[in-house]
Each structure stands twice: as structure tokens, then as C-alpha cells.
UniProtKB/TrEMBL annotation:
Statement: the UniProt record of this protein carries the keyword Hydrolase: yes
Stored CDD domains: nuc_hydro_IU_UC_XIUA
Record-linked SUPFAM superfamilies: Nucleoside hydrolase
Protein name in the entry: Ribonucleoside hydrolase RihC
Inosine/uridine-preferring nucleoside hydrolase domain location: 5-291
Length: 302
């Protein structure tokens, strides 16, 4: 039985890897893609999502979401993902006839309330759309099976020593989500730090198929966190967790979002010793299996 999911995303090179798997893998039933500000501005994240939809000739609806965080001014990560947000591969110009709406929050609400099964939300960008959804339409909570999100860290951040990018962009939105009482699985920076996508594996992508060729060229332009032997394709770990949960180690924790610290705003303060928990925190993946899982997950793509 396929897992019904909705992806909220700020493509983003690592988002593109996650979306490539989610659009083509038979175990995932992707109901919609919603876009959010983040790695690049909302116009570029939406354009990138449309280009991926066209690349895969997908009929999955795309809805544009919000352009700015709840309170903060927008930031971006063009220095990581390039000026377009998906540097390294030339897609045909985005076809805006493929954009279903610019009302992501309303679209999520309608799909959730009209679904005959609960749906897993998979945010892989800042949490602004998700926070607005939960605050504007709290009745949707009963239709959300769980929120499996890329964000945060049980250790150091990647934008500041304390904060990870998705949470840093909109800490107030993250605070709303982590206090929603909806089951949350937090796939933070920690997982990738233990098992990067190695340069050897990236080179093997070059001519496997059209999708791996596209990702190969983008990964070679990715300027995100690099570890000795490879790069951190953070968002892809979130999708792989959905496909191979047994290969990941997880711990229950109480996660609070720092909202006022001068140097720590956006930190996920992860307490494994508190009795009251609000999230499962993914700590690591079986390093010996990660690359195999990544290639297997991509094997359904064109
Ligand atoms: O910190 C990594 C996260 O920030 C990833 O989702 C990446 O795409 C950026 O959004
Ligand atoms: Ca992302």
C-alpha cells in the first residue's frame, strides 16, 4: 500500500534529489508539492518545482506557498544552491501553465479534509506554510498521520553554530509546528554528518539514467556542507527515512525552538532526558546501506 505524502519544499539541489525519488517511487503516493521561500525566493523555488514536474512529465499538482517567514525577513542560500537554486543543470524554462494554484495552504487543507486516509506531511524547507496551515485550519490535524521534516540538529547548526537553515529561516513557524501535538519525526543535520553521499557515488550517477545525470551535474555545483568523502544531501535522507525507516536510529526527545537568543535564535534545543516528548529525532543511518538505498530509491526514475 503506497504511503500518501505531501511535500513542502524550497528547491534547492537536495530538494531536487528528494523530489526525484518521491515523484517516481511506487511506495510513495505524492498528493501534491507546495513551494515555500528558503534556499532561493518563492518565485525561483516555484519555478524549480515546475521544472522538475515537467522533467518527470508528472501530473502531481504544484501549489505556490508563502514568500516570507512569519516575522523574520527572508534569507536565502544562493551561495549553496546557485543563483537559480538548482545550479548545474539547464532545464527548459518553467511552464507556469503547470502551476495548479498560488494558494498552497488552502490546497493542503482541501486535500487533507477530503482524503479518506491520513496523510504524512514532508516539509523539506522552512516551516512557514505548515505553521499557517495548522493555525488557519486546526481541523486538519486529525488528517495528518505525522510530520516527517528535514530540519534542526541535535548538535551544531549549519547557518550559525546553533541553528540549521530551515529552522533558522522561520523559527516562529517551527515553534508552532513542534507545539502542535502532531506526531513529528525530525530528520536533522545529524544523519548526513554520519553518512554523506560520497564523491565516488556521485561519479557513478553520471550516466545511469536521465535523472541521475541531472542530479550528477547539480551535485557538482552544490556548495553545501561537505564532509571528507562527500556531500550532505539533507532532504534526500527524509525521503529515504520514509522508505527504509528500519535503517535509521531514532530517539524520542523534547525539542524546543530558541526564539530570542542573540546568537542562538533558531536552535533546536533537543532534550533526550525530558519525560514529555514531542518528536522522534533521527540520529543516524546505517552507513553501510545508505548509498545502496539512495541508488535503489532512484532506480524507478527515468
Ligand atoms: O539545512 C539544510 C536544509 O536547508 C535543506 O532542506 C536545504 O535544502 C535547505 O533548505
Ligand atoms: Ca530544502
Amino acid at each position: 500500500m503506497a504511503i500518501p505524502i505531501m511535500i513542502d519544499t524550497d528547491p534547492g539541489i537536495d530538494d531536487a534529489a528528494a523530489i526525484s525519488i518521491a515523484l517516481t517511487h511506487p511506495v510513495l503516493d505524492l498528493k501534491m508539492i507546495t513551494t515555500v521561500h528558503g534556499n532561493v525566493n518563492i518565485h525561483k523555488t516555484t519555478s524549480n518545482a515546475l521544472q522538475l514536474k515537467a522533467f518527470f512529465n508528472s501530473d502531481v499538482p504544484i501549489h505556490q506557498g508563502v514568500a516570507t517567514p512569519l516575522i523574520n525577513q527572508p534569507v536565502d542560500a544562493e551561495h549553496v544552491h546557485g543563483e537559480t537554486g538548482m545550479a548545474g543543470f539547464e532545464f527548459p524554462q518553467a511552464d507556469y501553465d503547470l502551476l495548479t494554484s498560488d494558494k498552497a495552504v488552502e490546497a493542503m487543507k482541501e486535500t487533507l479534509l477530503n482524503s479518506d486516509e491520513s496523510i504524512t506531511l514532508v516539509p523539506i524547507g522552512p516551516l512557514t506554510n505548515i505553521a499557517l496551515l495548522l493555525r488557519t485550519y486546526p481541523e486538519v490535524s486529525r488528517q495528518i498521520k505525522e510530520i516527517v521534516l528535514m530540519g534542526g540538529s541535535a548538535g551544531r547548526g549549519n547557518v550559525t553554530p546553533a541553528a540549521e537553515f530551515n529552522i533558522y529561516c522561520d523559527p516562529e513557524a517551527a515553534d508552532i509546528v513542534f507545539n502542535s501535538h502532531i506526531p513529528i519525526t525530525m530528520v536533522g543535520l545529524d544523519v548526513a554528518r554520519g553518512a554523506s553521499l560520497t564523491y565516488e557515488a556521485i561519479n557513478k550517477l553520471q550516466e545511469k539514467n536521465q535523472t541521475s545525470h541531472m542530479l550528477y551535474h547539480m551535485f557538482n555545483h552544490y556548495r553545501g556542507d561537505q564532509f571528507g568523502d562527500g556531500i550532505a544531501v539533507y532532504d534526500a535522507y527524509t525521503i529515504l527515512y520514509l522508505l527504509y525507516p528500519e535503517k535509521f536510529s531514532v530517539a524520542d526527545a523534547n525539542v524546543k525552538i530558541e526564539l530570542t537568543g542573540t546568537y542562538t535564535k533558531g536552535e533546536t534545543v533537543v532534550n533526550f532526558d525530558e519525560e514529555t516528548t514531542n518528536a522522534k529525532v533521527v540520529l543516524s543511518v546505517d552507513k553501510s546501506q545508505f548509498i545502496t538505498m539512495f541508488f535503489e530509491a532512484l532506480s524507478y526514475a527515468k
